[in-house]
């Protein structure tokens, strides 16, 4: 699974990379994000009502109600920040978003942890001319959070799809890794059929990735990660 990533690409560069017109940029004066946790806001590229790509912030994780076992009253909702690739087309929780609301989630690296007390953190990125070239996770979004209080009911949220781990991620996280899309697949992911989109939910080639940071101390790693 993925529960921490970074997105430090400048807004103008994101617009160019993801083919977003300046008038469809809703980020404003966005700052680089070296540590994005569940329930944090982060950039997302989605299709607007007229079919154009737009860049805007969404909170990470589809939200579901949660009740206190002691009091029976609502408490902070759960955030579903990852969706399994083998569930998105069949699960009632994910199916509608997969069919109708696929999106791109800009990133520059992601962290997986190995071991405990203390864990060792591994930051993964793509190889390229830059230290950490920008890329996009396969994501989904939604604009209604059923069953939540009015202040969160219409919150825009996104989630990241995961698939089986490739050879570089597997020694750290044996089972899962986020789906990284190749640029030539962005349009198919966002506008293609469900079958075409499902075909893209595969491990990214390990030879095109690298570990860019390894060590303890999540906060320090996050601050220094890009």
Task: Briefly summarize what is shown.
This protein has six helices and 15 strands. It has 226 residues and is α+β, with helices and mostly antiparallel strands.
In CATH, what is the class? Alpha Beta
The string of secondary-structure elements, in order, is EHEEEEEEHEEEEHEEEHHEH
The chain-level mean pLDDT equals: 92
Helix content: 10-25%
Class of secondary structure makeup: alpha+beta
Distance between the termini: 21 Å
How many beta-strand runs? 15
Q: Please indicate the percent range of residues in DSSP E strands (runs of 2 or more).
A: 35-45%
What is the multimeric organization of the chains shown?
Answer: single chain
Shape descriptor: globular
CATH topology: hypothetical protein yedk fold
How many distinct folded domains? 1
Contiguous low-pLDDT stretches (5 residues minimum) are none
So, CATH architecture?
Alpha-Beta Complex
CATH superfamily: SOS response associated peptidase-like
User: Which radius of gyration do the C-alpha atoms yield?
Assistant: 17 Å
The count of helical stretches stands at 6
Main beta sheet: 8 strands, mixed
Keywords: Covalent protein-DNA linkage, DNA damage, DNA-binding, Hydrolase, Lyase, Protease
GO molecular function, one term: single-stranded DNA binding
Pfam family, one: SRAP
Family: Belongs to the SOS response-associated peptidase family.
Account of the 3D structure:
The chain has six helices and 15 strands. The protein has one domain (5-224): Alpha-Beta Complex (hypothetical protein yedk fold), CATH 3.90.1680.10. It is globular. The mean pLDDT is 92. It is α+β, with helices and mostly antiparallel strands. It is 15% helix and 38% strand. This is Abasic site processing protein. Keywords: Covalent protein-DNA linkage, DNA damage, DNA-binding, Hydrolase, Lyase, Protease. Pfam families: SRAP.
